TrEMBL record, chains A, B:
This is Citramalate synthase. Its EC number is 2.3.3.21. It comes from Limnoglobus roseus. Pathway: Amino-acid biosynthesis; L-isoleucine biosynthesis; 2-oxobutanoate from pyruvate: step 1/3. It is an enzyme of class 2 (transferase).
Length: 526, 526
C-alpha cells in the first residue's frame, strides 16, 4: 500500500471562500481536530497577510499535537530584491513552523503579464527563496501556481521553475491547477512528465471550477503524486478547493492507498460537520460520503431493496466514513453513534439506556438541534436520560424589553425570576443587547450561590437558521462557546425566538459548568 | 464535431432528491424552459408512480415545444407475466410520448436477491418489454440499471441483458452507475467494451456518490457514449445525479462536442437558477460555472491580478455560460477593488469618488461589516457616497418586548413608528421572535405605500459575532438574504444589539428592493 500524505489548507486557502471566516479560537480548535483525524500537514495561514494568522502561529505552538505538522504559507521574494532582506520571507519564518510552503509562478504569462518581471528573474526568485528558507533550517514545500496552465503555454519554462525549487532544496513540489480548468486525463499526463523529471516528492492542489477537482486529484495520485492538498468540505474561493473528505474516502476505500491513520475514516463525517459549525455554514446535505442525504433512501422501491440488502443502492457501507443510512426523511442518529459518543461516560452502556438517550437526541434533532459542536448540551441530555441530572435553578419567568429611538443606541433591559436554593431571586439588568442583558441578570441571581460562575466567560455566539425557507419566522439554532480556566465547551438552543434559543444555550452553559466543577472533571482530561 | 444528445431527467430522477418537489405547473414551466435551452430529451415522469405524472403527460402535449422530445419512464414487465397485460407498460404507453425509456436489471445480484427471479426470466422481461413497446410504434430507450456493478459481478450476463434490449429494438442503451460508486477509468473501460459489443447508441447515467459524476460522464462520452442523462443542478437522490450544467459546459467548452444548440451555453446560468426557484431551493453559491461565487475574487493579490487580466484566475470567460465576475469587498480591499466593483454603476469613476466610497467601506469594515455577501448594502453605500441616495422612510422609533413564562413559548410584540410619504405610521405586530415581529410591523407600515414589497421574501438569516472575546456583549453581524421573482440580494447590519443589527439589515433589504424596482434594473440584467 502506497502512502499518500494529506495536506489540509482549510485554514489558509479554505478561508478564501466566500462567507468562510474563522476566528483565532476557531483556527486552533480546527487544528486540534485535524490532528486527531490524522492529517499529515496543516497549513495554518499566511503570516504576512494579516495579524490574526501571525497570532495563530504563536498560539499553535502550545497545542499538544500528536501527529500533524503545522505549515506556514508565503510567497517567493519580491522581484529584484534579496531573499535575506525580504519582508514576506521574514514574516514566514517568524511563524517558527517546522515546514514552510512557498508559492511561486510557473506560467510565463503570469510572470510577464501579472508580476511584470523577466522569466530569468522569476526562476531566481524561486530558487533564492527556497534555498534561503532551507538555510534557516526549515523544510520547504514549493507550490507551483498555475502549473498546468503554465505547462500548456511553455512546458520547458514550467519545468525549469520546478527544477529551480528542487535545486533550492524543496522536498515536495506541488502542482497547482489554480484556476481549476484542467481535465483529468491532462492532469494525469502532465503529472507523469513531472514525475519523470524530478526527484522530489510531488503533490497535487486542485480547484473545483469544472466539478473535476476530485477526479483530477485521483488522476494525479495514480500518476505519481504522493501529497494531496485540499480543504475540509471543499471550502475555498470561487467553486472551492478539492474536498478532502471525498478525496480521502476515494483514495482509501476505492484505491486502497494508505491515508491518515487507522480508524480515521470513521471520523470523516464528524470532522466535516465540525468544520461547518466552526465556519458557521450550513451542511451540504448532498455532499458525497458525509452528507445527511448521502445514504438517504426515499421512495418505496429503493427503500424496500435497501431493506433487503443495503448494497442494492449503496456503493459503500456508510459506517466506513462514520455516516449512517437514513430510510425515512429524518435526521436521526443511530444507536451506534450514541454508543460511541457515550463511551467516555461512567454509565451503563446497555441497550435500554442507549435507546433512551437516542430517543431524546432524535426528538431534539427533529426540531433542529445539532450536537456536533455542543458537547455541553449533550452531556446534560445524557445526565437526564440516566437520571443523574439535577436542576441547579429553575426559571420562573424572564422579560426582555428593547427601546430604540430614531437614532443612537437602543436601551435593553432584562428581568429574570428564578427559584434557586429554595429562594426566589428576581433580578434586573441592562445590557448591550437582549442576550447580554439576560446573561447579566442570570449571573446576578446565581453568583451568590455559585461563586465559581465568575470564572466562566462566553467566547463565541453563533446563530443559524434551521429552516431557512421560513425567513424571519424560521427556527434558529444558537450555539454558544464558553470557557473557564481549563476548558472550552459548546451548548445549543433552538427556538423560533432567538432570545429563547439563546436562553436555552446560556442556561445549559451554566449548568454544564456547575456539574463539571462538582464532578471535578475537565473536558480535556477525558 | 461529434454531437452529444442531452437527456434531462430533472422532472423524474431529480425529483427523487430530498426536498425537491415540483407541482404540475412547475413541471410544465421547466419543460418549456429546457426546450428553449435546446435539451434533446425531457424525461417528464414515471406515469405509474403517481397521478401528477400521468396528468403531466396529458398537459405537455399542448405545449408548443420547438426541439425537445418528451419521454415517459417505466420499468420492464413484472416477472412471469406478459408484456401485453402488464399494468406498468400500459400506463407508460398511455403517456403517448414519441419515446419511452424502460429500466431493467443488469446485475445478477439484483435479479436474484432483490427482484427474486431467474437470470433467464430477467432477460426475457427486458426483451419482451422493449419489443412490445416498439411494436406499439414508439421509440424505446433502455436504461441498464446498476450496469457497472453488474458488469463487475458477471460481465457476460450484464452484456446479455443489453443485447436483449437491442434485439427488442431499443435505439439507445443507457449504462447506469446507479449507486455512483464507479471510478472514471473503469467507466471508460467498460463503456468501450459495450461500444464494441453493441450497434445501438450508448448513453451514460451517473450519480455523484463519489463526487465523480461529471468525470465519469466525460469519460463515458470519450469512450463512445453519445447520450448524456442528468439533471439540472445535479438534483437527485442521495448525492444527486450528474449536474447537467457542468457536464454540458465541459463537453462544449473543454472538449468541443456539439451539444444543445448555438447560443444555448449563455443561458445555462439563467436556467440553473430558474430550476432552483421552481424547486424552491437555495442556489449553491460555489456551484461550478453558474454559482454566484464561481467567478468571485477575494483578497488583494488575486483581485489585483484579475483587474490586470481576468485569465489570471479564471479558467473561462464567465459570459460564456451567462455568469458574471464578482469582485468581493473584503478586509483586504483597496481602491482597485472598489473601482472594479463599481464598474457596473452609472457613476463617475474618478479618484475622489472612489476614495469616498472606499473610506465609507473601510469605516464600516472596521466596526465589523462585511460586504462579501451583502451587495444590497454595498449598493446603498455607493448611492450615499455619490449623492443619489434618498431615504424611502425614516425610523422614528421601535420597541420590542419579549415575555417568557416558566414554560411554553414566549410572547413577542414589536411596535414600529415611521415617517413615510409625509405621514407618520405607527404599527404593531406579534411574531415568533423579535426579528419576525419587527419585519411584520415594518411591512404593515410600508406595504400600502410600496405594494411590490409583497413580492419580496427573506430566504436566509445569519448571525456572527464580530469580536468574540466580548462574549454576549460582543458586536454581532447579521446578514439577511432576500429574494423576489428575479433576484437574490444580501444585506448586512452590525450592532452590539442583535435586534438593532437585524433592523439595519432588514431596512437595507427593503430599500434595495425599492431602488431596484424604481431603476427597473435586475441584478442579472447588468
Amino acid at each position: 500500500m502506497t502512502r499518500v500524505a494529506i495536506y489540509d489548507t482549510t485554514l489558509r486557502d479554505g478561508s478564501q471562500g466566500e462567507g468562510v471566516n474563522f476566528s483565532l479560537q476557531d483556527k486552533l480548535l480546527l487544528t486540534k481536530r485535524l490532528d486527531d483525524l490524522g492529517v499529515d500537514y496543516i497549513e495554518g495561514g499566511y503570516p504576512l497577510s494579516n495579524p490574526k494568522d501571525a497570532e495563530y502561529f504563536r498560539a499553535v505552538r502550545d497545542l499538544p499535537l500528536k501527529h500533524a505538522k503545522v505549515v506556514a504559507f508565503g510567497m517567493t521574494r519580491r522581484k529584484n530584491g534579496s531573499a535575506e532582506s525580504d519582508g514576506g520571507l521574514k514574516a514566514l519564518l517568524e511563524g517558527k513552523t517546522p515546514i514552510v510552503t512557498i508559492v511561486g509562478k510557473t506560467s510565463a504569462f503570469q510572470v510577464t503579464e501579472i508580476i511584470g518581471t523577466t522569466l530569468e528573474e522569476n526562476v531566481k526568485m524561486i530558487g533564492d527563496s527556497v534555498a534561503y528558507c532551507r538555510g534557516q533550517g526549515v523544510e520547504v514545500f514549493y507550490d507551483a501556481e498555475h502549473f498546468f496552465d503554465g505547462y500548456k503555454l511553455n512546458p520547458e519554462y514550467a519545468l525549469q521553475t520546478l527544477k529551480a525549487a528542487e535545486a533550492g532544496g524543496a522536498t515536495c513540489i506541488i502542482l497547482c491547477d489554480t484556476n481549476g480548468g484542467t481535465m483529468p486525463e491532462r492532469v494525469a499526463e502532465v503529472v507523469a512528465v513531472a514525475r519523470r523529471e524530478l526527484k522530489a516528492d510531488i503533490g497535487i492542489h486542485c480547484h473545483n471550477d469544472c466539478e473535476l477537482a476530485v477526479a483530477n486529484t485521483l488522476a494525479a495520485v495514480r500518476a505519481g503524486a504522493t501529497q494531496v492538498q485540499g480543504t475540509m468540505n471543499g471550502f475555498g474561493e470561487r467553486c472551492g478547493n478539492v474536498d478532502l473528505v471525498s478525496a480521502i474516502a476515494n483514495l482509501a476505500i476505492k484505491y486502497d492507498y494508505e491515508v491518515l491513520k487507522p480508524g480515521s475514516l470513521q471520523r470523516l463525517t464528524e470532522v466535516s460537520r465540525y468544520a461547518y459549525e466552526l465556519a458557521n455554514m450550513n451542511f451540504r446535505s448532498g455532499q458525497p460520503f458525509v452528507g445527511l442525504s448521502a445514504f438517504a433512501h426515499k421512495g418505496g422501491m429503493h427503500t424496500h431493496a435497501v431493506a433487503k440488502n443495503p448494497a442494492s443502492y449503496e456503493h459503500i457501507d456508510p459506517a466506513l466514513v462514520g455516516n449512517e443510512r437514513r430510510i425515512l426523511v429524518s435526521e436521526l442518529s443511530g444507536q451506534s453513534t450514541i454508543l460511541s459518543k457515550t463511551q467516555k461516560y461512567q454509565i451503563a452502556h446497555d441497550k435500554a439506556t442507549m435507546a433512551k438517550i437516542l430517543n431524546q437526541v432524535q426528538d431534539l434533532e427533529n426540531v433542529g438541534y445539532e450536537f456536533e459542536a455542543a458537547e455541553g448540551s449533550f452531556d446534560i441530555i445524557v445526565k437526564k436520560a440516566v437520571g443523574t441530572y439535577k436542576p441547579w435553578f429553575q426559571r420562573l419567568a424572564y422579560r426582555v424589553n428593547i427601546e430604540q429611538p430614531a437614532t443612537g443606541k437602543p436601551i435593553t433591559e432584562a428581568t429574570v425570576k428564578l427559584s434557586v436554593g429554595g429562594s426566589t431571586e428576581h433580578t434586573v439588568s441592562e445590557g448591550d443587547g437582549p442576550v447580554n442583558a439576560l446573561d447579566a441578570a442570570l449571573r446576578k441571581a446565581l453568583v451568590q450561590y455559585f461563586p465559581r460562575l465568575d470564572e466562566m466567560q462566553l467566547v463565541d455566539y453563533k446563530v443559524r437558521v434551521v429552516n431557512p425557507k421560513e425567513g424571519t419566522a424560521a427556527r434558529v439554532r444558537v450555539v454558544i462557546e464558553s470557557r473557564d480556566h481549563q476548558d472550552v465547551w459548546g451548548t445549543v438552543g433552538v427556538s423560533e425566538n432567538i432570545v429563547e434559543a439563546s436562553w436555552l444555550a446560556l442556561s445549559d452553559a451554566i449548568e454544564y459548568k456547575l456539574f463539571k466543577d462538582e464532578e471535578g472533571t475537565t473536558k480535556n482530561g477525558n
